[in-house]
Structures are given as C-alpha cells and as structure tokens.
Amino acid sequence: MQRLLMRGGVPLTGEVQVSGAKNAALPIIAATLLAPGPFRFSNVPVLMDVTTIGNLLERLGATVQREGDRLAVDTTVLHGTEAPYDLVKTMRASVLVLGPLLARMGRARVSLPGGCAIGARPINLHLAGLEKMGARVSIDHGYVEAVADGLTGARIVLDTVTVTGTENLMMAATRAAGTTVIENAAREPEIVDLANLLKAMGAEISGAGTDTITIQGGGELRPAEYRIMPDRIEAGTLAAAAAITQGDVLIRGARAEHLDAVLNKLRETGADVAVQPEGAIRVKGGRRLKSVDVRTAPYPGFPTDMQAQFMALMSISDGLSVITETIFENRFTHVAELRRMGADIKIQGTNAIIKGVSELSGAPVMATDLRASASLVLAGLAARGETEVSRVYHLDRGYESLEKKLENLGARIIRLTS
Ligand code: EPU
User: Fold this and answer.
1) Is 121 in the pocket of ligand 1 (CB under 6 A)?
2) Catalytic: which of 116, 200, 336, 357?
3) Which runs of consecutive H residues, i.e. helices, occur in 109-218?
C-alpha cells in the first residue's frame, strides 16, 4: 500500500504548473460517445480517474491511446451499451456515459453508483431529466436501464444544482430532436468546458455558465480536437499549500477567474494573493493565518472540493472559524484525522467549528477520499515532525504528481511504495 511521508515546516517557494482539470476531462471523454470518429485531446491530466473512464470506453468498443498529456479516443465502432459495476464502483463519474450512450445507441445500462465516502449522492435528477426527454428508465439488479427510440427536447427544471446531472442532460440533449432548456443548471467552469467541446463537435448550445442552458438538438455531430481547461481545485490546493507553509509560490497555468471565492477567502486569512496578467497566481504567506468562516455552495460559491483543504488551514489559524458544508452530508471524514494531528475541531450537524491551535504535530493518518487526502497532505506540510498519509490511491485519483510538484517547491515529501 503506497504512502506519503513528509516532514513539515518548510515554507514552499518557487513555481508550479497546474495540470488539466479532472472534472472537465471526465465528461469531455464521455462526450466522445456521442459521435463516431477520432477525437484528440490535450492537457489531459495523468490520473487514475482518467484511466478508469478510458477503460470504460474501451469496454464499450472505443479505442483509447495516451501519449503524455494527449489522449486520442476513437468511437467509430461501439459494440456495448453497458457500464459495469466493477468500473462504476471505483468511480462514480462513470455515470457520465449514461446520457451520451442513450442518445447515440438508443439504450444504456449503467450500474447504479451507490453511496460513497462523502454522501449518498443519488442520480435521480439525471434519470428524471432523461425521462422528460422521452427515455424509459427502470432499475433492475442494481443497474439503471434507459431506452429511447429517439430523444426529444424538453424543458427540465433541476430541483438541486447538480454538476454531472447538468452534464449528462446537456450531452443527451445534443442528439434530441428540438430544443432542450435546462433550468437551475450548474454553472461550474467545467460545464462551460464541456459545452465548448460539444460546440466544437457542431452542437448548438447557449447559456452554459449561467443557470439556464439551451440546447438546439438533432444536428449532426462530428469528432473534434480540444484542450482541457486547467484544474481549478488543484490550483486552489497549491495556493492553500503556499499559505499554510507561509511560503511564496507562483502557480502557473491556472485561470484565476475560476477561483474568485477561494482566492478571496485566502486573502481574508491574511495571505498575499496576486493575480498576474496571464492568469498565474502568486500566493505569499509569511504570518499566522487569520480565522475565517467558510460556507460551501455551488459555483461561483466556495467549492465543496476545497472545503477539506481550507479546514487544514483553519486548524492552525489564530481564532475560531466555522466551516459549513452544504453540498454533501458526510464530507467531514478528514476531521478525525486532523484531530489526530492536534487540531481542535467539533462537528455540529453541517458545521465544523475549528479553534486554531498554534501548531499541528505530525502523525500517521489515513486518507478517506480525494479532497480529504489533500487536506492531510497540507496539514503534514505545516506540522512539526513527520506525517505519514496512507491510502494515497485516493490522492492519485485526482492530483497529478502532487508529491513531485510539492517536492519541487522544497517540501520534504517522499512516496513509500511498500
Ligand atoms: N444530487 C441529487 N440528485 C441527483 C444529483 C445530485 O440529490 O440526481 C445532490 C447530491 O447528492 C449533492 C448535490 O446534489 O448533495 C450536488 O451533487 P452534484 O451532482 O453536483 O455532484 P456530482 O456531479 O456527483 C461533481 C464533482 C464532484 C464535486 C461536486 C460538487 C465531477 C466528476 N464530480 O460531483 O467532485 O464535489 O460536483 O461540486 O465533476 C471531487 O473532484 O473530489 C468531487 C467529488
């Protein structure tokens, strides 16, 4: 079992490059199922989740080839319509093949993802939206089966903002006859990135990035070449690493405009955050962080995917802070591990009440999910002494070479493989 071993207390300094966005790459790769032919993508992060969606597409008959940050996907021939349990259980985002498969093949059978470490995470809104477009949906033996003789455009009002739900419906709508309007749509930059790929394929979409997306479906779709947007959560995590170690780091390749809520909170903590003209972000720490309250919300609010990392920061801030998680009901699993490092955190419902301590002390800790792992790494970088984070496979699902990037910034961190 691989682990990360680090000795904390080194202020990170230097420059670091952000990789492509996991949560943009996954729907974009799934979207290749919509149109037969060869697609080429660049800035594709080297991550376990990207390998998993590639494996899933191969099971469906596509060919997938990776070369560095490039990925070629050929969906000329598909011979399957099933996303099996063994793949879906390792990655919930596998559900993103549901909309495109149904739209192109007239049917899809996708294992129900089930709950996960951060919450129940149902897909009822994906299914209700597809039904509104004319699909017949049933659940049998743990699988969703969706069938349609041809989808038709519909007005779909999502009663909760859902990122992958919006993506699934937007993809399906590109092949549905007529107009689909998705209201209360997610506004995440990854939705815009997916819409841009779909437009490059010939789809007619307007409003992506707002809460109302209109898709004029039924036109011909063709393969495309596309460059994946930078990962805003990786950039935010690196910014938090600079602040928590009181370092001075230039984060290159990020799009600062995707990170307004995170950067504003960092500024409130007293970190010096400067955005350079081409989008690079410089974060300078240097003094003890001030405590700030954080409430997660759909974009453009503070991302739930940065909540755990911010909690690591607040655990050594100079006062009391309240972090409220509004998106997922169980996204506090890092709390017990941070406490093992000396953090003073109490949970009251959806609130974590954090009383900053003067320092954390290194300890063996266990990662429970992707962003929780990142939080433990941040805590370990700041803690006195040695921290060993086990189960780093969670981290590898969503951060490309994180320990190498941190090591280049001066962190004392190594991966233990036995
Ligand atoms: N929800 C429903 N019904 C649905 C769909 C969602 O009730 O049909 C609820 C969820 O239970 C949750 C809320 O709606 O309470 C929002 O969930 P959402 O559907 O937006 O989450 P997701 O699409 O499954 C994506 C990201 C997550 C990120 C969330 C929120 C991808 C592949 N995943 O998940 O990323 O936390 O949006 O921003 O885009 C991560 O990268 O670590 C990660 C978990």
Assistant:
1) yes
2) 116
3) 124-132, 163-173, 189-200
Report residue 47: phi and psi, to 5°: -140, 155
**If you measure from the C-alpha of residue 125 to the centroid of ligand 1, how many angstroms do you get, rounded to a whole number?**
11
Task: Please give the single-letter amino acid code of residue 263.
Answer: L
In this structure, the number of other CB atoms found within 10 A of the CB of residue 279 comes to 18
Smallest CA separation from ligand 1 atom 35, residue: 305
pLDDT digits (tens, 9 = 90+) for 344-395: 999 999 999 999 999 999 999 998 899 999 999 999 999 999 999 999 999 9
Reply yes or no on whether 138 is catalytic. no
Q: What is the full DSSP assignment across 3-62?
A: EEEEE--PPPEEEEE--B-HHHHHHHHHHGGGS-SEEEEES----HHHHHHHHHHHHTT-
CB 186 within 8 A of CB 197: no
pLDDT, position 221: 97
Beta-carbon count within 10 A of 136 CB: 12
Query: How far apart (Å, rounded) are the C-alpha atoms in residues 11 and 24?
Result: 31
What spacing in Å lies between the alpha carbon of 327 and ligand 1's midpoint?
Answer: 8
What b/e string do you get for 95-108 counting C-beta neighbours within 10 Å, with b at 16 or more? bbbbbbbbbbbebb
pTM of the full structure? 0.97
In this prediction, residues 313-334 reach a mean pLDDT of 95
Residue 220 in tokens: 């011909």
Q: Which of the four pLDDT bands, split at 50, 70 and 90, describes residue 216?
A: very high
Mean pLDDT of the chain: 96
Above 90 in pLDDT, residue 287? no
Q: What percent of the chain has pLDDT over 70?
A: 99
Task: Give the ligand 1 atom nearest the CA of 49.
Answer: 32
The structure tokens listed for 74 are 């050929």
- Ligand 1 atom nearest the C-alpha of 298 is 38
Residue nearest atom 17 in ligand 1 by C-alpha distance: 162
198 has pLDDT over 80: yes
